[in-house]
């Protein structure tokens, strides 16, 4: 059975034989594998909730709209709210404040 150090050495040997763009792809893959959010998504159970008729209608309406209109870039929607992509990414990394506890009086 291979040890972790022998696996690491083998990985290093394999990487040393790759072209620069292949190394970049492997590095990106490893970064994704080590990212907590990506790990959580990868290990999440499959979606098993039924899709409602309302959701089906909404998706159909969106697809029909896209047949006649250009998609609106995310950056443009954010700009309407005075936000940038950097703002949006920072918001995604900022934890929400704890919800206040309610007393039952």
Helical run tally: 6
Shape category:
extended
| Helicity range | 55-70%
Strand content: under 5%
Please compute the radius of gyration using only Cα atoms.
Answer: 23 Å
What sequence of helices (H) and strands (E) makes up the elements? HHHHHH
* Sheet with the most strands, sense and barrel status: none
Structural class: mainly alpha
Terminal residue distance = 63 Å
> Could you list the spans in which at least 5 consecutive residues all have pLDDT below 50?
none
The count of β-strands is 0
Rounded mean pLDDT is 88
Structural topology:
Blueprint: H1 4-16, H2 20-34, H3 36-43, H4 53-68, H5 74-80, H6 85-93
Primary descriptors:
105 residues; mainly alpha; 0% strand; extended
What does this structure look like?
The chain is built from 6 helices and no strands. The protein is extended. The longest helix has 16 residues, at 53-68. With 105 residues, it is mainly α.
């Amino acid at each position: 059975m291979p040890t972790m150090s022998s696996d690491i050495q083998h990985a290093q040997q394999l990487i040393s034989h790759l072209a620069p763009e292949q190394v970049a792809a492997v590095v990106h893959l490893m970064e994704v594998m080590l990212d907590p959010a990506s790990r959580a998504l990868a290990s999440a159970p499959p979606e098993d909730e039924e899709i409602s008729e309302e959701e089906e209608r909404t998706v159909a309406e969106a697809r029909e709209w896209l047949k006649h209109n250009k998609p609106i870039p995310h950056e443009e929607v954010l700009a309407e709210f005075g936000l940038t992509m950097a703002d949006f990414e920072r918001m995604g990394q900022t934890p929400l404040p704890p919800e206040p506890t309610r007393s039952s009086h």
